[in-house]
Amino acid sequence: MKRFLAAVASAALLIAVAPSAWATPTATGTTAVGLHNSYTQETAPWLVDVLDRDPSMVEIDVWANFFFTNDFQVGHDPGNANNCSSATTYEGLRTGSRNQNLAGCLRNLRLWHDHNPGHAPLVVKVEMKNGFDGRAGFGVPQFDTLLANTLGAGNVFSPANLKGGYADLDTAVQAGGWPSRSALTGKFVVIVENGTFELQNPFDNYDTDLEVADRLIAANAGGTLASALSFPAINGASATDPRTGDRGGARKPWMVAFDGSAASFAGFGGGPYLGGKYLVVMTDAHNVAPAIDSRAPAVADAQARVRQLGAIGATIVSSDWTSAEILSYTAS
């Protein structure tokens, strides 16, 4: 009974909020929808099935295979287990062999992009399950080269594009902000974050987001920032700015993307997270009280959840929702 009353109270609160409360600024001026585990065959038979529903974010889990196949693999567990096609044309993306490596999945994205050059900006969220290892040829520079060779460097909105003439990314975000959604038409934005296996590995104390930040610092100092195509994303909701300790100091100005539990963000209270100036992904949006279905909620309920999280600074709201009507929705 207590849970029921709490849910009713929360729902009543949402209904009572004035429409203007949803207009709080976010990083790009909008809040859009992403799909968790976009790459799995349980989510969709083919990756293009997801892309054609116009999500604003797809998620890819990546394993660096150091010892056997010597490549970046895509799957929830080690090995290639995914809905990416071996096709070489957009028309063939629902044919061919599935279970491709990361290069194959990225080529699917490129074929879709070439067929839809005016697509809405698409965030590609990469969870590096077991992290990078530059010593074995699986470092961030190699990852960036792979992005350039598949997606095409000119199709990616990169850290150098955000930085412009400012000293660093944080200065750029504070002064000019992220570009508007319309200004990012036809672009990919690649964010990379720590993997679950990596965080449990006692022999790996150099987390993915730290490696990506250090890559940006070194590239900027060496005059090669244009070759760095991915942004580090700090994974884990925090009520305050998480850029402290290892993520503070010289790294802080290069970390402008965040990811974490939507329910946690919603529980912090206050206005837009970190002033609404940063790219913020809020995951498992269905779990925010009152919880809604994780796969097929009523469209109106999902869209109300997007607006609710937009009010606290979400750039992307992520769940397992697969409906095109939900995935293509944006709130401003």
Determine the CATH topology.
Answer: TIM Barrel
Number of helices: 11
CATH homologous superfamily name?
Phosphatidylinositol (PI) phosphodiesterase
Identify low-pLDDT runs: 1-24
CATH architecture title: Alpha-Beta Barrel
Distance between the termini: 36 Å
Radius of gyration: 19 Å
Order of helices and strands: HEHEEHEHHHEHHEEHEHEHE
Protein name: Calcium-dependent phosphoinositide phospholipase C
Signal peptide: 1-23
GO molecular function, one term: phosphoric diester hydrolase activity
Organism: Umezawaea tangerina
Throw out a few tags for this protein.
alpha/beta, eight-stranded parallel barrel, 11 helices, 10 strands, disordered N terminus, signal, PLC-like_Pdiesterase_TIM-brl, PI-PLC-C1, phosphoric diester hydrolase activity
How would you characterize this protein structure?
One of its GO terms (biological process) is lipid metabolic process. InterPro entries: PI-PLC-C1 (IPR032075), PLC-like_Pdiesterase_TIM-brl (IPR017946). Keywords: Signal. This protein is an alpha/beta fold and 332 residues long. It has a single domain (32-331), classed as Phosphatidylinositol (PI) phosphodiesterase (TIM Barrel, Alpha-Beta Barrel). It contains 11 helices and 10 strands. The chain has helices at 2-16, 47-51, 102-115, 140-152, 159-163, 169-175, 196-200, 208-221, 262-268, 299-310, 324-327; strands at 31-35, 57-65, 71-74, 122-128, 188-194, 230-235, 257-261, 279-283, 316-319, 330-331. An 8-stranded parallel β-barrel has the order 1-2-4-5-6-7-8-9. Helix 10 (299-310) links the parallel strand 8 (279-283) and strand 9. Helix 3 (102-115) packs parallel to helix 4 (140-152). The longest helix has 15 residues, at 2-16. The radius of gyration is 19 Å and the shape is globular.
